[in-house]
């Protein structure tokens, strides 16, 4: 394991020195992972993987002061034929197959959960809806959820997050060879909620993963998805949208780790922001890391992040990263764009007799349309569209 020459710590543990510029930032391929929370230093906010996160708003999830003694209820609906739901203890051998925590909060969540929910999908024509409810206002909790597919199974899962309180959790998605999973993840928290989640996606040979993420609620939501491939032919697509209004912090930190040949990945995230004078800025953070290792020949990948800043008092940070260790790839690229609301579009719509407030909503709806169109469940798509409309109405966009 590579160590920090200044402090003798592994790369992810050398946050203070790295933040001071004393140690170069390690490759994504060298990032430290562990199930042991004590293997990680308490982050101070200067570390590369924490520098955009408002640490004081984490409710103690990062430093061990959070009690994590609340309960995050997990309910599964639509678990008919082809779906098995189990509540298991920490000793279940399947837990951890999806991946290993890569930061202190994910490791704390792993160390603190008492029971995990395992949902096994053997092919089902109807969507399965899983609801994770926060522990309640002022409470903190840890939880663990694993989704598994059988070989060549096809399934659709909607994972909804609701309620109040602070939650640290790990989501594992383990796809068997030749299986296909469509997953929609929504963050529809109450205004006080804090959610810090690690998502571990592990794809078997010729497995297909389609993930759509929608972040609308919460005070602070920080999600860290990691995609890994266990065999050639894996295909992963991660798309998402976030709407941050005054005081909200929405953060996505992705890593797509191509370690085997003949796999593909596509990442597209869009955020809209609208702030307000006198309160903390609306803030979105998107970090997109794609690592193509030396063995990952014939990889095809692209990642793109777009941010639409609707008003002042809004800040969007976007950092796409691409590491390539082999020249034998099919294609790779990344892009990022952040811009203000286009007054010309607004003028065009108003010149057609559309009131200004309606015109602004149409522009935002068009911006998000590419993401929402990926949701193939009509009722869910309409509900999320209505939720976005409600956000726009509240903030006056």
TrEMBL record:
Entry-linked InterPro entries: Fe-S_cluster_assembly_SufBD, SUF_FeS_clus_asmbl_SufBD_core, SUF_FeS_clus_asmbl_SufBD_sf, SUF_FeS_clus_asmbl_SufD
Domain SUF system FeS cluster assembly SufBD core: 137-367
The protein's name: Fe-S cluster assembly protein SufD
Gene Ontology BP term (one): iron-sulfur cluster assembly
Cited Pfam families: SUFBD_core (PF01458)
Top-level taxon of the source organism: Bacteria
Annotated family: Belongs to the iron-sulfur cluster assembly SufBD family.
């Amino acid at each position: 394991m590579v160590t920090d020459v200044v402090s003798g710590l592994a790369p992810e543990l050398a946050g203070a020195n790295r933040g001071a510029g004393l140690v170069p930032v390690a490759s994504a391929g060298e990032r430290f992972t562990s199930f042991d929370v004590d293997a990680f230093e308490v982050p101070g906010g200067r570390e590369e993987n924490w520098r955009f996160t408002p640490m004081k708003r984490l409710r103690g999830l990062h430093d061990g002061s959070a009690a994590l003694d609340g309960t995050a209820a997990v309910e599964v609906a639509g678990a008919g034929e082809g779906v098995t739901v189990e509540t298991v203890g920490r000793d279940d051998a399947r837990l951890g197959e999806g991946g290993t925590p890569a930061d202190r909060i994910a490791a704390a969540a792993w160390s603190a959960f008492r029971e995990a929910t395992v949902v096994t999908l053997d092919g089902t024509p109807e969507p399965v809806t899983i609801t994770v409810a926060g522990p309640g206002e002022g409470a903190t909790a840890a939880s663990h959820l694993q989704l598994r597919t059988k070989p060549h199974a096809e399934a659709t899962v909607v994972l909804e997050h609701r309620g109040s309180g602070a939650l640290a959790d790990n989501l594992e998605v383990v796809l068997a060879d030749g299986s296909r999973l469509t997953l929609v993840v929504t963050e529809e928290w109450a205004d006080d909620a804090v959610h810090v989640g690690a998502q571990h996606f592990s794809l078997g040979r010729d497995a297909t993963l389609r993930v759509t993420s929608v972040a609308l609620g919460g005070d602070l939501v920080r999600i860290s998805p990691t995609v890994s491939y266990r065999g050639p032919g894996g295909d992963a697509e991660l798309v998402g949208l976030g709407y941050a209004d005054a005081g909200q912090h929405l953060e996505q930190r992705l890593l797509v780790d191509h370690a085997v040949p003949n796999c593909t990945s596509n990442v597209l995230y869009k955020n809209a922001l609208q702030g307000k004078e006198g309160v903390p800025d609306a803030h979105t953070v998107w970090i997109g890391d794609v690592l193509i290792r030396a063995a990952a020949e014939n990889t095809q990948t692209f990642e793109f992040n777009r941010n639409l800043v609707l008003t002042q008092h809004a800040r969007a940070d976007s950092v796409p990263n691409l590491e390539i260790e082999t020249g034998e790839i099919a294609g790779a690229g990344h892009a990022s764009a952040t811009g203000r609301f286009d007054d010309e579009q607004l003028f065009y719509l108003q010149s057609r007799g559309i009131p200004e407030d309606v015109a602004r909503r149409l522009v935002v709806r068009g911006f998000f349309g590419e993401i929402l169109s990926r949701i193939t469940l009509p009722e869910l798509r309409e509900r999320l569209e209505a939720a976005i409309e409600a956000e726009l109405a509240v903030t006056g966009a």
